[in-house]
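Researcher: Please predict.
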Amino acid sequence: MTADYVMDSLLVAECGSTTTCVSLIDSVGDEFRLVATGRTTSTVEVPWSRILIGVREAIRQIEKLTGRMLLDDEERLIAPERDDGSGVDGFVATVNAAVPLRLAVVGLIRRLSVESLLRATDSSYVIVEEVVAKDDATSGAGRPGRMDGLVKGILEDQPDAILIGGGVDGGAVGPVLEVAKDIATALAVGGEHGRVHVIYAGNRDARQQIAQVLGECSSLHVADNVLPTLESEDLGSAEEEMNRLYRESKMARVPGFGELKAWASAPVLPTAEGFGLVLRYLARLYELDLLAVDVGSATTHLAGVIGGQYGSTVNAELGIGYGVGDLLEQASLERIVRWLPFEMEPREVRHAILNKALRPMTIPETREELLLEQALAREAISLTLERARRRWLDGGSSRRPGRLPPLDLIVGRGGVLSGAPRPAEAALVLLDALQPTGVCTLALDQSSLLPQLGALAYVHPLAAAQLVARHGFLRLGTAICVVGAAREGSVALRIKVEYGDGQTIEVEVPYGALEVIPLMPGRQASVELRPTSHFDVGLGRRGKGATTRVEGGVVGIIVDARGRPLTLPAEADQCRTKVQQWMWEVGL
């Protein structure tokens, strides 16, 4: 659908692997606002096998809520909006219901070109199944052998694409050309002529010869060199090529995607791409260092803008529904169970997780099931954070080993966070999994709008900007997180809060504890921080105090004096007691 009229009303949809969410946006006076939202089960898989069925059901919910007709008698979207108020002027969608792109990575030097190639895969819905480096002739599983034999082994797993690179621009072309010849030979022997996609992102001077070697035996795509010099990386072109390949070969094959695309007024984007666009907009508009996490059924996505640089890690095989089986493999039962304040047999935990893998669309029905799902979310975030640290997140500097850099804003989204029964539950999951330091704001994408607003910006930047400002976040509050260690129970931080009406509260927060101080949404307060000699409040020096203004939220001011890195008792009973204590301290 191509819009050649003024857009005063729109529907925006997010089609996930388990949930489809559609929102109606309309102009009220000179401002765009969220009017209503409909949510339903996604209908990608059997027995429906048609993505638009779920979208229509969510739209019908909006029709019931608003009394506004949006679909005609044949269930087609009414567009543009009619004089009687029925219909809308536009439709925008993001999708993350497609299966990931299965990828093999082949390069010359593991610590140089291969690492850059792997970093380039992080921003896409990609599962890297094999990694081969010419310098050690070793696959990702560590099996030694000849390079040509390893390449043949890659093709036995039938990847969707091979990403190859190596060499700096202007360097020797021979080594990367040898790799290309090995791939061409393996394709010919394996009978894969022309079927496998190959993305070349190496030495630009070798492109013509690479095309001669691989052009006829594969579907060749050429991107800029990911490592043009030994001192610089250029990942953008390779990232875009993988995103394009994912859209064309995976997203386009989602059942009913063609119908969805026909409705759309703008390109249908992968959810991670729309999310990244809106995060970069927010960081630029408000001059923020921010980090956001999206915990989904099949995927966990961590993205942020720090020091003006955007980074993204899409963990396309790790989620708390469809991806919970992989989560169980990567995180031991002990790691998951440590977040539970009650005793649960390992066998019972395993069965509950496997049942979730078999029935990913189920929602928790008991408190125990809810807390287990939140425990899984903590581990999904933690594992994705570990991967992001290795790839782009500058948290491992010698000055701040193993810690996040200072942040202004942390945003959470996904049903387990945005749909938490109590906001303090989501705040605690974010604090436990990410372990920020210093003073930062915690927020949720409670309206499930952020990725769609990134897509909306293509056709209506003003509407996207106004909706981000008005409906983008549910502010949880301000987190004040100290770094250091001392005897448990000794004072870590003295804090004085002065409210706008002149009233003050003074609190001593002991090491190992959490403290919540009331501060309502929309209110500000002046906060004086006085850490004791063993603790730092994000200023780079222990014992150094400061006074700052903070904003409130639905939880308030959350003081986290548990230290960094966060540690839990090794003994199971003590661990459960400690987790329960933390929950009580935030009002749960």
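Model: The chain is about 35% helix and 25% strand.
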